[in-house]
Structure formats: C-alpha cells, structure tokens
Amino acid sequence: VTLPSGYGYVRYPKVFGHLHMAKTAGTEIDGELAAHFERVCGNKGYSYDAYQFNQRRADANGAMAMKSSKEESFNRGSLSLSAMTEIGFEDCDFISLESRWTNWPEIAKDVWPIELHVPCREPINHLMSMCNHQNRQFDCNGIVENEVNKCTFLGQRFDMQLARTKKNLTMKCFDPIPIDNYLDYMGNFLQRKRIEAS
Q1: Tens digit of pLDDT per residue, the chain (198 long)?
Q2: Whose CB has fewer CB within 10 Å in the chain, the N or C terminal residue?
Q3: Interatomic CA distance for residues 168 and 17, integer angstroms
Q4: How far is 103 from 114, CA to CA, in rounded Å?
Q5: Sign of torsion over alpha carbons 57, 60, 63, 67
Q6: How far apart are CA 93 and CA 79, in angstroms?
Q7: Which residues contact 139 (CB under 8 A, 6 or more apart)?
Q8: Residue 162: CB atoms within 10 Å
Q9: Are 24 and 177 in contact (CB under 8 A)?
Q10: CA atoms within 13 A on the CB side of 44
C-alpha cells in the first residue's frame, strides 16, 4: 500500500499470486508488472532483472537475450519453475506461475498467505483465442465437444481443489482483458520501481 509522500511503502499482509492460464494475457501482465514494480517474481518477468532484460532485448533487435545454459527453452525473460524455486519466493510481493496448480499450495506453505488471482476470461472469446493460437478452425457444425477439445490446452494450471485449499491460500477472480484495469488495481498494492523499464 502506498502512503502519502514521506511515509514510505507498507507491505500488503499477503503475497499476491497470479495463476497464469493460457491465452489470458498472463505474459503481458507479468512483464508489465515486473517492468514497473518491485518484488514481482514471475516465469515471464522478474523485477530484479526487468530493466536490464528489456535493454538487452532492445540491443538484440527483439531477439531473446541470455539463454540458459541448463535449460535451452528458457531464458532470463522466461524462467522455469525450478529456476524460480532456486531463486526463492521469500522477497516476492507478486508471484506469477505458468505451471501445474499443485505448485500453489506448496509455495503458500513456504511463504506467507497468498491471495491467488485467477483470470476469468469470457469463455467463448477464450476458446476462440486458444483455437487461433494453435491455427485450428472451430467447426460450428461439428460435434461441439470434439471441437472444444481440439482447441483447449489448459495444462492442469487450475483445479477446483485449489478452492478447497484453506491453509494460506485464498482465491479471487479477475477479468484479464483489457489488462489496464488489473494493472491499475495492482498498482494500489505494489511498490513502484525507482527506474521503470519501458
């Protein structure tokens, strides 16, 4: 929570979690928050490196910078869960994960209470976005269940068991599109960076 000038920054009593579902603007949300706020820890952006990563990326004309020598498909702008776990979550005010839902209860028991934000995108738009991402055509005259199944790829990122996880974890739903409302909302709780990345 940001107080009037001269009072400094007061930390929110919970850590914010962002359940990064496919095709819900999660990469953009994580990257924007990491670029503008402190202690954002996400697999698609970390505050501690956001300025330098964006600068390296600009210098490389948009190419991904700093590939990992251990994990070829990851880099400093796209971290694996194992790399994030190695860095640790102890100093995070906002954690964004693009991984299995079972990781959230594990992280919550090691940190302090987590307020998990679950993106709740309009279902038809979400489905069509997943179809488009995979270059698949949705046949409105086909068998609906088959058409839906060929487009969805949720990767076990959410399960209703999360709602029953009472220890250190609460959930809130938010509309991720457009992202500006969510970024403005989080700006009420996170500390702005001294030098923000572009």
Answers
A1: 555 555 677 888 899 999 998 889 999 999 999 999 999 999 888 887 766 766 666 776 655 555 544 555 555 667 888 888 888 898 899 999 988 999 998 888 766 789 999 999 888 888 898 898 889 999 999 999 999 988 887 668 888 888 887 678 999 999 999 999 999 999 999 999 988 877
A2: C
A3: 12
A4: 12
A5: negative
A6: 17
A7: 147
A8: 18
A9: yes
A10: 18
Alpha-carbon dihedral 28, 34, 39, 41, rounded to 10 degrees:
50
Decide if 186 contacts 16 (C-beta within 8 A). Answer: yes
- Those residues with Cβ within 8 angstroms of residue 189's Cβ, 6 or more apart along the chain or in another chain: 1, 12, 16, 93
Task: State how far the Cα of 36 lies from the Cα of 190, in Å rounded to an integer.
Answer: 9
CB-CB contact of 186 with 162 (8 Å):
no
Residue 30 dihedral angles phi and psi, to the nearest 5°? -60, -45
Instruction: Please give the structure tokens belonging to residue 61.
Output: 């004309």
